[in-house]
Description:
Layout: H1 2-29, H2 46-49, E1 62-65, H3 90-96, E2 100-105, E3 110-113, E4 116-120, H4 121-134, E5 140-146, H5 156-164, H6 180-183, E6 188-193, E7 212-214, H7 222-234, E8 245-249, H8 263-271, H9 274-284, E9 292-295, H10 300-314
Parallel strand pairs: 1-9, 2-5, 5-6, 7-8, 8-9
Antiparallel strand pairs: 3-4
Amino acid sequence: MGSLVSKQVERRKAIRTEKKVLCDLCESCGVDFPGCDYHPPDRKNWMAGLNPEKVHINKIVWPGTHDSATNKIGTPCISRPFAQCQSLSIYHQLVRGTRVLDIRIQENRRVCHGILATYSVDVVIKDIKKFLSETESEIIILEIRTEFGQKDPPDFDKYLVEQLGDVLVHQDDHVFGKTIAELLPKRVICIWKPRQSPQPNAGGPLWSSRYMKDNWTDTDLPSTKFENNLKHLSEQPPVSSRKFFYRVENTVTPQADNPILCVRPVTRRIHGYARLFITQCFSKGCVDRLQIFSTDFIDEDFVDACVGLTHARIEGKA
């Protein structure tokens, strides 16, 4: 019992130390970067506001959400706090400015996070269609994967094409060098990641798993995650030459050996340091590699930071 208590004391000290590291870095380095003062007048239509004829797909810093469809997962006040990573619906995330969605599913086509399930993926598709019907120039990256330990839903690739076929951007390496205007009226880059089923074919309406990469660090230590994100990002090719999307997730996750298992208080340890991360990307010389930037509980400031850097890139300032 004593060793367990001692271990938890050390864990709490490590967390406090790592939180202080980020706080001190923020105070010493600041959070100013090219585009940091830009705020889109309409987050629902922020891509349209940047001029679709000028915005190349590989120049966008895409604001994304981690475990996007978990707003109603589990039982309120019981299991939900342990699995909920977003409080907004898919539609309201898109309205807020989110442009990359991370959806995990089970064999029965229900969205899930680990062992906990929520509504059908039909709800996600319905929200996406609603948003698309209300906008004209916003491009969405929709990543759907079969959750770890689950089986692929039967004929799910056919389902996706039936539901979204008219707006799907077909898998093509040339897409990265195109502008938004050149993709329209196609609006959705759908990356389907099955576990047992065949990967989508080249040139087809769905994109295969090789087009979405990341380096997930499973930790609740904020400075460790922050530094690992910078390290892995610096090892990627610049967006100008890359033929895949690379995601950095501004999140930390609860660990089984720590008594704090609810998502919100844990991820809050790093949540407010998104602008610091962008600043450090400039400092470390890897800002030309930053592309998809995702978070739990996405807010306006996170979106504005991503859009601001995108605006700076378009203007040749970053």
